Every structure is written in structure tokens, then in C-alpha cells.
Amino acid sequence: MSRYVLITGGTGLIGKPLTNALLSQGHQVAHLSRSSGKDPRVRTFLWDVKKGEIDPACIIGVDTIVHLAGAGIAEKRWTKKRRKELIDSRTRSIGLLYELIQRTPDHQIKRVVSASGINIYGSHGDQWLTEQHPPEHDFLGDCCVQWEAAVDQGAAMGLSVTKLRTGVVLTTKGGALKPLSLPVKFGFGAPLGNGRQYVPWLHMDDAVDIYLRSIDGSIPEGVYNMLSPEPVTNEQLTKAIARQLKRPLWLPKVPAFMIRLVMGEMSKVVLSSVRASAQKLTDVGYRFKYNVIADALKDIYEQKRSS
């Protein structure tokens, strides 16, 4: 069945490969963006979340919305202004779409699939975290709570809502892998903090596939931890990257206090230990392509060498 999918954040880390995957399956894709698009296969509609402006034609014929829009968590320090931007870019954006849907009684939208953050739980050492675990009362936790609450407003409008609490998506096309691997590549790699904090990683191919299955309904509505069933510690991840790049690790671990000194509160992004469970996804029938970090990294770097 051919679908018409409207994506917010369609040119981002997940949005771009998801768009390509949808198009390759014969679906129609449109993006909501602040500027004109460059892909002739995709129609781009303009919006300005800060001004509350959106092209009303963006939802005509659309049956599914994928909400990926959101300012980058680790791109800038969390000043008061930046905190507001991080939250508003996730909540006001979907709210603007919902307002348009309410003003358009003949719309055909049935499903909303939205990103969320795995850091909603905070840091809990080696404790396994399921979707029932309460959110942490810190900035990241509160940001995710507000994000999900804004997305959940679609359920009151009769829409099917799926939320994917996304881990660290591994790809050489962006995201966390480059800053993690660059020091290793040049011989200065080392685990961060004590190295025992769990990293909730995920291969990009699995991330895209989970979105595709959420869009077609194979993964039912609800909230899911989206990460590999086998999370690894920061030290294990660093060593796995070093093995793939054939580089030695000889430096001592980077002390947590130095990371906090440089990054401030944002250091929680790399020092928090999130050992979340993917059991709910596997229970609904999803089978991960990459469970083992070594296999995932091998495929990722082979893709890069062959491209």
C-alpha cells in the first residue's frame, strides 16, 4: 500500500535515510522545512515554528506524519535561551501541525510516528530500564516528557501515536560516531569518565527499519525504547571503534571532572549510564539486524569505504 508521509526534520540524521527508504518503496514523501528543499523527489513545504507559520497545503493527501524536528541536544551549551529552543523546537512544532489538522476537518491523517529521547530515564548505572521506568527530573528528562506530552495530543484527535525513544544512532554520516572515533583515529582515543556508563547504541539501518515498520503499522502504537538489545559501556564502545580503525588505545581514561569542566551540565549526555531494554520492540516481532557492536561497526565502516 502506497503512503504519503510528511516528515519534520526530513533532512536530519534519520530523516534523510528514512526519506530515501520510503521513496525506494514507492511511497510519496514531503518535508516541512524553514527553507526550500534540494531533493527534486520530495516536495518541501515551508514553516516557521517561532512565528507560528505553516503552509496549510502541507497536509493535503498526507496519511502519516513523522516528527523528527528538534534542535541538536549536544550542539550548544544549555543556556536558558538554548533550553527553551530545545524544548520549543520539539513541542511547538508538533503543536503547530496539530492546530492545522484541527482546522482541516477533511484531512486524511491517521498516524503520527515521533522521535523521543532515551535520556528520559536519566543515569541508572547497570540497572535495566523499561518503558515503565519513571522519567528523571532533570533537563533532559523534562525535555523528553514535554516532547512526548505534545505528541500525545494527537491521540485525543483520534490519531494513532507511536513514540520511539531513540538511542545513539551509529553512522558515519553524522551524529555521535564521528566525535567518538576522531580521537581514536589520530591515536588519542580514551574512554570517558570511568568508562562503565552504558551507551544505548543503534545501527542506522535498524533505526530506519523501525521507523518504516512503525509507519506501516507492523509496530503497533505506543512508546518504545529504540536501541540495540545489547547496550555496551563507553569503554567497550571505544575499544570496539579502536579495533575497527586498527588504532591503539594507550591514554588513560578522561576524568569525569574534566568533561564536566568543559561541557558543563551538557556532560550528562556522555557521562550518563542508560542501560535500556529493547524487549518491547522484540516482543512485537522486530528482529534487529545488528545486535553486536563489533558487527555493527564493521558494517558501518565497510559502507564508508565502499561509498
- Could you say which structural class the secondary elements and strand pairing correspond to? alpha/beta
Largest beta sheet, briefly? Answer: 8 strands, mixed
Instruction: Estimate the global geometry from the Cα principal axes.
Output: globular
H/E topology pattern: EHEEEEHEEHEEHEEHEEHHHEHH
Tally of helical segments: 10
Distance between the amino and carboxyl termini: 31 Å
Proportion of residues in helical segments? 25-40%
- In the predicted model, the low-confidence regions spanning at least 5 consecutive residues are none
Query: Count of DSSP E strands?
Result: 14
- Widest β-sheet, arrangement of strands: 4-3-2-1-5-6-8-12
Q: Tell me the strand percentage band.
A: 15-25%
Mean pLDDT: 95
Return Rg in Å: 19 Å
How would you describe this protein?
The protein is an alpha/beta fold. The strands form four sheets. Strands 4-3-2-1-5-6-8-12 form an eight-stranded mixed sheet, sandwiched between helices. Strands 7-14 form a two-stranded parallel sheet. The protein has a two-stranded parallel ribbon with strand order 9-11. Helix 1 links the parallel strand 1 and strand 2. The two termini are 31 Å apart. The mean pLDDT is 95.
